[in-house]
Amino acid sequence: MNIVVVGTGYVGLVTGVALAHIGHRVTCVDVDKEKVERMRQGISPIYEPGIEPLMKENMEANRLFFTTDGASAYQEADVIYIAVGTPGNEDGFADLTYLKQAVRDIASAVTKDVIVVTKSTVPVGTNHEIQRMFKQLVPHVHIDVVSNPEFLREGSAIHDTFHGDRIVIGADDERAAAVVADIHRPFGIPIFHTDIRSAEMIKYASNAFLATKISFINEIANICEKVGADVEQVAAGMGMDQRIGSSFLRAGIGYGGSCFPKDTKALAKIAANIDHDFELLKAVIEVNNKQQRKLIEKAKKRFGHLAGKKIALLGLSFKPNTDDMREAASLVVARELLAEQATVVAYDPIAMGKAAHVLPKEVIYASSVEEALQDADAAMILTEWDEFRQLDLSVYVNEMKTPIIFDGRNCYALHDVARYPIEYYSIGRKPIT
Ligand code: NAD
C-alpha cells in the first residue's frame, strides 16, 4: 500500500509515522519547505513525546519519506490522508481554505483511482463536498472519499494512535471502507463503520461532550469555593459512578488548544445554520471564557489592583507535554495582566520558543522556574507540567518577594502547601491564607 499523508502537523506527522511503523510505505507531504527539510534530517517540527525515535526508525527502514513535491507523491498513491489544519475563522466557522487547496492539489496530480481519507476535523457535509469537487475537477479518475476523524491528544499522541479507543470510518462505498479498515487493522483497535455524515458528527459531538464535562466540573468548582466543599473530593466521588466516569473531571482554568475551542464554536455554528440554537454548548463556551480569567479575578481580589506587581507565569502551552500555544489560557492571562499594568515574567519547560511568537512582546522570559519566581509578588500556574508539580515548595518561599500562588491547575495537595508560609489560591478548594 502506497500511502500519502498531506500536512505534517500534530495529526499528519503522527499518522504518517504510525502508519509507517505498522508496515506501510508512507510519504508525508507539506508545503512548508523548512519543516520538510528538518523532518528529512529526523527532526520533528513539533514537540511530542516519543515521536523522533519512531520517525528515525521508520526512515531508516525506508518506509517513511518527506517531500514538498505533492504532485509526484499523489500520482503514485493508493490512499491519500488529508491532515491539514481547519482553524476557526472569526465567525466561529471552520476555515476550509487549506483543505480545499489540498483537494485541488490532489485533483491536479492524480491519474489513477485513489481513496482520499479526511482526517482533518470538518463540518458535516464537507466530505460530500470534497467528493463533488473531485467529480468536477477530475471526472475521468475514480476517487472515493472516506471520513476518518482523529481522536489523538497532543502530549500523548503516539500512545493514543497505537492504543486509541476506536477508529471511526465513515464511507459511502463499502470497498473503500474495507481498504481503510485493512490499513488500520494492525493497530488492533476496534473499528467503527458508519456513514460519512455520522463520522463527521462523531468528532464534533465527542469534543463538545468532553468540553461540556470540563465546563461542568469548573462550574461545580466555582460553587464549591462558595459553599466550602472541595472539588477534588467531589470529582473523585462523582467519578466512582461508572455512568459518569472519572476522566475530564479535573477543575482548572478551562480548556484551550487547537481543538476544543474551535470545534465547540464550529458545532454551535453548524447548529445555528440549521436554525437549531445549541444553548447547552453555547453555555459551555461561555463558562470556559470566564474560567480562563479566574486567576486574574482572584489576584485582583487579593491585591486590589495589579499595577506594578511582578507576576510569574508558570506554564504557557495549553497543556503539559506539548509546545502547542493555540488558544492557551496563557494568551488570555498574559494579555489581561499587561492591561492591568503588571510585569509578566514567564517560564515554560518547552513552549517558550513558540510562545514568543504569539504572546505580547512585553512578556519577559525566564530560563528557569527559580528565575521566573525571583522577587515576584505572585505566581500563576497555568499548565500542570511535572516540573511544577514536583517542585520543592520551599522554592516559592525562597525566591518570591511574597510567596502567593494562584494555581489554575490544582498542582499541589492542600496539606503539602499548608506546611509552608505560602498563600495559596487554587480552583474549587479552600484557599490557604
Ligand atoms: P497543524 O496546523 O499542526 O498542521 C497542518 C499542516 O498542514 C501544516 O504543517 C501545514 O503546513 C500543512 N499544510 C497546509 N496546507 C497544505 C497543503 N495544501 N499541502 C500540504 N501541506 C499543507 O494541524 P493539526 O493540529 O495537525 O490539525 C490537523 C487537523 O486535525 C485539523 O482539522 C484538526 O482540527 C484535526 N485534529 C487535531 C488534533 C490535535 O490534537 N492537534 C486532534 C484531532 C484532530
What would the average pLDDT be, to the nearest integer? 97
C-alpha termini separation: 63 Å
Proportion of residues in β-strands? 5-15%
Q: What sort of overall outline do the alpha carbons produce when their principal axes are compared?
A: globular
- Ligand catalogue: nicotinamide-adenine-dinucleotide
Largest sheet: 8 strands, mixed
Count of DSSP-assigned helices: 19
Low-pLDDT ranges: none
Strand count: 14
**Rg estimate, integer Å:** 23 Å
Please state how the strands of the largest beta sheet are arranged side by side: 3-2-1-4-5-6-7-8
Query: What share of residues is helical?
Result: 40-55%
Derived from helix and strand composition plus strand pairing, the structural class reads alpha/beta
